[in-house]
Amino acid sequence: MAGQVATGSRSGLRSALPLLLPAYLWLTVAIFLPLSAMVFFSFMTELPLSGKAWSFTLDNYATFFSQGLYWTLLLASLRLGLEVTLWCVVIGYPAAYVLAKVLRGRSREAIFLLVILPFWSNGLVRIFSWAMVLREGGILDTALNAVLPFKINIDLMYSYPAVIIGLVHSYVPYMVLTCYLTLQAIDDSLIEAGRSLGASRLQMLKRVIIPLSMPGLVAGAALIFVPVVGSFMEPRILGGRTGTFYGTVIEDQFVAVFNWPLGAALSFILLAVVLVILALASPVLRRAA
Amino acid sequence: MATTRFLEWCGRLYIWLLLAFLYLPIIIMALMSFNVSPFYQLPFEWTTEWYASLWQNDQLISATWNSIKIAIISTIIATVLGSAASLALYRHEFRGKKVLQALLFPPIAIPWLITGTAMLIFFFGVGIGRGLFAILLGHVALALPYVIVVVSARLQTFAPELEEAARSLGANQWQVTSRVTLPWIMPGVIAGGLFAFAVSFDQFVVSYFLSTPGQTTLPVEIYAAIRKGFTPEINAVSTIIIVVSMALMLLTARFFKFGGEK
C-alpha cells in the first residue's frame, strides 16, 4: 500500500524505506494482518485448520442479530463504558483543575506524577487489590465496623458496583492526564480578565474553562470508554456471576467454548463500534491539535 | 479573598482524597502480603512466609522468568526498530507519510481484547501457533507505536541544521546519525525503551490469548491463580510486580517529562 501512495516523491520514500520497513513490516504481521484475518474468519462456518470442511457464511452475524443475548450484553457493556466514563469525569476533572490551576511548582509536579503512576503499574494486580478491600470480612468491612457503633455488612464483592469501582480506579488517571494538559494551556490572564469583568466562578467555569478544556475531556472520554467496553478481566474478577459482559462472552468463545468464528464476528462488531466512537470523537480532537 | 483561600484548601484536600483512593487498595494488598492469616484476617501479624513460599512455586518462577525474558527482548527489538522508523519519518518527506503515522494509532486505540483474539486467529492460521514466540511477536507490535511516538516527540526538539552542519564538515550518514542525532534523542530512546518494557511486562490480555499451559507469562499465571481462589502468595507476587513497575515508571519520568511542562 505504501508503494502505491508514495509514487509522487519516490526518492524520499526510497531513502526512508530501509529504516521504515522493519517496524512497519512487524506491525503488519502482528497487527494489521491479524485484524484482516479476523474479519475473514468471522464469515466462516468452521476453522479451516481443524481439517473439517468449511464454507463462507453469514451465520455468525445472524447469531448476533437474532439472539437477544448478544445485543443485551453489548448494550450492557456500552452502559458500563458510559457509567465508568462519567464517574471518571466527575472524579478526574476537578482533580485536573486543582493540579493545573491551584498547585504550583514542585508540589504540582510531584502530585501529578503520583496520580499517573499507578496507571502504569499492572492493571490486573490493581483490580485484584480491590478484591481484598471489597469482600465481606475484608478491609472496608472490618474498618467500618470498627469505627461505626452499629453493625453493617459490606459485601460489594461480585457486584456491579464493584466492577464500576475497579474500572474507575483503573482509568481515572487517563482523565486527569488529558484534562490537565488542556487546562494547563488556558492562560491565567484570561480567567483574571473574566473575573474582573464581573463573571462569577460558575459563569467562568461554564463559559470559559469547560469549553476550552473540551478537547481534553473528549480525549479522556474516548481513551476510557473504548477499553472499558472491551473489558473482560475486571468484570470476571470483581463481578463474579454478575460480571457477564460483551467482553467476557468474546473471551469465552476463544478460551472455553472454542467457537472462534463466532468470537471473531463478535470481536469485529466490537471493533466497528469502537471505530464509530473514535470517528465521532476525532473532529473535537483535531480541532485541538 | 477568604473564599478563594477556602476553595484552594478544598482543592488540595480533594487531591489527597483522590490519591488515597488510588493508593489505598495497593497499600492494603502489600500489607496483607506480610500478614500471617491466609484469609486476610486482622489483627495484623508480621510474616514473610508468603514470600518464602513463592520460591517453592515453580510455576510462578518460570512464568516470571518468561515475563522478564520477553520484556527484555521485546524492549530491545521495539526500541531499535521504533527509533529507526522515527528517524525515517523525521528526515524524509514522502507521500503517504501521514498515513503511516496514522497507522500507529490503531494498535494503541483498539482494545487489547480485539487485538489479542485477532493475533490468536492469525498466528494459528499461519502455523505460528501459540506460545512464547507468538507472545513476543505480539508484545513488540504493541510496544512499537509507543516507542515511535515518544522518540518522534523528542525529535521535534532537534534542529535539523545540526545534521546539515555535520554533513558539511564531512561526516558521512552513519557518523551524522551516531555522533549527532542519536546522542540528542537518547533521552527519548531510553524513555521509549522503558515504555516498551512496561507495555510488555504488564501486558495481560494479549499474552493471555497467546499463551499455552507451559509457555505463559506472570500476569497470565496470576489471573489463573485468582480464578482458582485468592492466596497470600498472589498478594506477595503482586506486590513485587507493582513495586517493580512503579519503580520503572519513576525511572521513565526522570528521562521523559510528562504533561508538557517546560
UniProtKB/TrEMBL annotation, chain A:
Family annotation (SUPFAM superfamilies): MetI-like
Of which family is this protein a member? Belongs to the binding-protein-dependent transport system permease family. CysTW subfamily.
Transmembrane segments annotated in the record for this chain: 23-44, 110-133, 158-183, 204-226, 262-285
UniProt xrefs under PANTHER family: INNER MEMBRANE ABC TRANSPORTER PERMEASE PROTEIN YDCU-RELATED, INNER MEMBRANE ABC TRANSPORTER PERMEASE PROTEIN YDCU-RELATED-RELATED
| Name of the protein described by the UniProt record | Polyamine transporter subunit membrane component of ABC superfamily
Q: How does the protein associate with the membrane?
A: Multi-pass membrane protein
Question: Where is it localised?
Answer: Cell membrane
Keywords, alphabetical: Cell membrane, Membrane, Transmembrane, Transmembrane helix, Transport
Q: Where is the ABC transmembrane type-1 domain?
A: 74-281
Q: Gene encoding this polypeptide?
A: potB
From which domain of life does this come? Bacteria
Record flagged with keyword Metal-binding:
no
Annotated Gene Ontology cellular components are:
plasma membrane
Is Glycoprotein a UniProt keyword of this protein? no
Q: What does the record list as GO biological process?
A: transmembrane transport
From TrEMBL, chain B:
Q: Which family does it belong to?
A: Belongs to the binding-protein-dependent transport system permease family. CysTW subfamily.
Q: Which GO biological process annotations does it have?
A: transmembrane transport
Coiled-coil stretches are none
Q: Where is each ABC transmembrane type-1 domain found?
A: 64-252
Name assigned to this protein: Polyamine transporter subunit membrane component of ABC superfamily
- Which InterPro entries does this entry report, sorted A to Z? Bact_Polyamine_Transport, MetI-like, MetI-like_sf
Say if the entry is tagged with keyword Transport: yes
Q: Where in the cell is it found?
A: Cell membrane
Q: How does it sit in the membrane?
A: Multi-pass membrane protein
Q: Is the keyword Cell membrane assigned to this protein?
A: yes
- Specify the species: Mesorhizobium prunaredense
Coarse class of the primary localization is: membrane
Q: What are its GO cellular component terms? A: plasma membrane
- Taxonomically, the superkingdom here is Bacteria
Keywords assigned by UniProt, alphabetized = Cell membrane, Membrane, Transmembrane, Transmembrane helix, Transport
Which residue ranges does UniProt annotate as crossing the membrane?
A: 12-34, 70-90, 102-126, 132-153, 184-210, 236-256
